[in-house]
Each structure stands twice: as C-alpha cells, then as structure tokens.
Amino acid sequence: MDFLNCLAILVREPSFIHKFNKAMYNSKISGLGFFVPDNVVTNDDLAKVMDTDDAWIQERTGIKERRHVIKGEDTTTSMGVKAAKIAIERSGIDKQDIDFIVFATLSPDYYFPGPGVLVQRDLGLPTVGAVDVRNQCSGFVYGLSLADQYIKSGMYKNVLVIGSELHSHGLDMTTRGRGVSVIFGDGAGAVVLSREERKGSGILSTHLHSEGQYAEELSLIAPGMGKRWVTDILEDNDPNDESYYPYMNGQFVFKNAIQRFSEVIGEGLKANQLETKDINMLIPHQANLRISQFVQKKFGLSDDQVYNNIMRYGNTTAASIPIALTEAWEEGKIKEGDLVVLAAFGSGFTWGSAIIRWS
Ligand code: UT7
Questions:
Q1: Are 31 and 83 in contact, with CB atoms under 8 Å apart?
Q2: Which residues lie across from 131 on neighbouring strands?
Q3: Does the CB atom of residue 56 touch ligand 1 within 6 A?
Q4: CA of residue 325 to ligand 1 center, whole Å
Q5: How far apart are CA 83 and CA 34, in angstroms?
Q6: CA atoms of 259 and 322, how far apart (whole Å)
Q7: Is this model's pTM higher than 0.90 or not?
Q8: 286 lines ligand 1 (CB under 6 A)
Q9: Separation of 350 CA from ligand 1 center, angstroms?
Q10: Is 18 one of the catalytic residues?
Q11: Is 315 a residue of the active site?
Q12: Number of folded domains in the chain?
C-alpha cells in the first residue's frame, strides 16, 4: 500500500486514527473524595476496654484517634459509595459515563460477591464491569495501577477506584488483641481516573511487588478454605481461638515496611528520571507515623512534602491513601503540575508506588 492509499484510508476512516492512538493515552485523577464515620474513638476510649494507654499508642504509632462504624450505620460498601459520590461529582462526569469499577478492600461486606458489584448496584451505574482487589494496604495502589492500564490501552475512559475498610467489627477488642486493634480504623476514599490526552501528565507510572513467603506474618486466616472454615470454628467452640482475628508480627512487618517503602519510591523516581528533590507531595500509606517519618528522613523531605493523617484516622488499609490524598488536595497542598508520589506496603507482603504529575 503506498503513501497516498494510506492517507486515503485515514481520511475515510477516522476510527483508524483513534485505534492507532490507543496506546498513547495517560490517565489522571479527575475527581477524589473520602468518607469517614462520625464516631470518634480516642486512645482513652480504647484504654477503657483493654490494657493500653494513650502514651503507648501515640509513641509507637502516632495515632490519637480513629473512626469506628456504629453497627448498622455503614458497611465497607456504603462508605465506598459515599466517597465515590463525592469523587464523581468533583470529576464533572455523569455517573453514567463510568466504564469500570475497581474496589480494594480486605473487609468486604460479604465473603462473596465482592463489593465492586454492590457499588454498581447502589450507585445505579450501567452494567459496567467491576473487579475486587485483594491487596490489603497496597490495595489502592494496585487498583489505581489496574485502572491506569485500562485507560492507557484505550479500553475505558473513566474508571472508579475505591479503597474502603470496615475493620472495627472484626478486631479483638481485648488486651489479647491490643497490638493490632489500636492501629486500625474505618473509612473510605475514592478517585475517578479519566483519560488524559496530554503527554507527561497524570499517572506517569506504577510499580507493584509481592513476596508471598511472608503471607502469614500479617494475615487473617479464618474463615478460609485453606485452614479453618466457619464450621471448624463453630465445632471447636474454643474461647481461646484467635484464628478469626487479624495477626501481625509487628516488628517484622515494620522492618520490611521501611525497606520496601524506600525501594519502591526510589524505583518510581528512577523510572521517570526524577529525583527526590522533584517530589512535591509524598502520600505514604498510613501504616505507622514512625514508618512515614523514617521514609521522610531517608529521602530528606520536609514536613510540607509528606502528608500524614494517621493521627486522626489510624491505619485504614486500602482507604488510607485515597483519604490522605483527598485531604491534602482539599487543603490546597496539591496543585496542577505537582509531582505526587503514592507508596504503600502491607499484608502479602505487597508493596507499590504510583508517580503522578498532577493535572
Ligand atoms: O499497614 C500494614 C503494615 N503495618 C505496619 O507497617 C505496622 C508495623 N508495625 C508496627 O507499627 C509496630 O510493630 C506496632 C505499633 C504494631 C507495635 O509496636 P512495637 O514497638 O513493635 O511494639 P511490640 O509489638 O514490640 O510490643 C512492645 C510491648 C510488648 O510488651 P512486652 O512484651 O515488652 O512486655 C507488647 O505486649 O508493648 C506491648 N503492647 C502494648 N502495650 C500497650 C503491644 N500493644 C500494646 C498496646 N498498648 N496497644
């Protein structure tokens, strides 16, 4: 086919140009929102039901208070829907224009189906696809990465990405569970990821990792088909059974977290030929204030370059990054053209980063 014939096809068939261009898109966050329940639980409140105290919790984690859903008032899905409504409104798109749903959580309403389809129903969306992400604290970064690939490929224009967690109903609120229970809080965050035509804007890259040999170091193993199903728990009827509460090897997780956070931020910067000084805002998953501070120091970032809100919400797992990102944006700390870095580490182990040129 000679040059003139090619040109003739392009003129007659504009969709050919579109198809050719598919791989050329980026994605950008066009809207973002969060929701946390009103019920504030302080460290002193926890000290009333278990052997702990405000000084220990603040010193080891930075947490002053967290939110807990009052039973019956919200679910993981309903909080996600509330956050999503705000994100959709701010994106300026009609909800009918959402092409796909990604929902990251470790605390779904049901064992199955996952919450993605419940969002499709409760938001009254067309029968778009919905996928559930099971990557715990890294869930939002994994979800964002998935959504980014769908948009980059040209398959979808607008993808709703939600991270939501309702931890409080599943925690061991006795002294036995204090090493875990004081850390986690409830809440949800959401973004709409939309097609970005400009080069060098929006999500520049995402970087994902896993190391399953440490799966049980931060885990909730029952009920599950691998070791203990509900019937086993009921049959045993053992008051000392801890298998249906989350387990965390705290110090081991901490050590791995500071290493992997640093690696994956460095990996993202390098992939884009960027340096630490180029970061305008780092939003680390809110695992522990001491972890965020370690990473901040390692990269030589100022307080203005790192956003933390674990003091007010605790660790909300898949919701922590979209909640912090939304708050930072609402406070005017993220502006057009800024380099925003998201980084997460958690159960799996899984970890990841996203490098974003805000637009
Ligand atoms: O988001 C996913 C990733 N998660 C993380 O990255 C979390 C990483 N780990 C951590 O943040 C920390 O390891 C924790 C905050 C969980 C624990 O802090 P730590 O400094 O590692 O404390 P520890 O587990 O070594 O416990 C020290 C002591 C123990 O007492 P003994 O054995 O020294 O007498 C615990 O029993 O503190 C005790 N302890 C508590 N005391 C008061 C544990 N939990 C509590 C508590 N209140 N809530």
A1: no
A2: 102
A3: yes
A4: 27
A5: 4
A6: 22
A7: yes
A8: no
A9: 21
A10: no
A11: yes
A12: 2
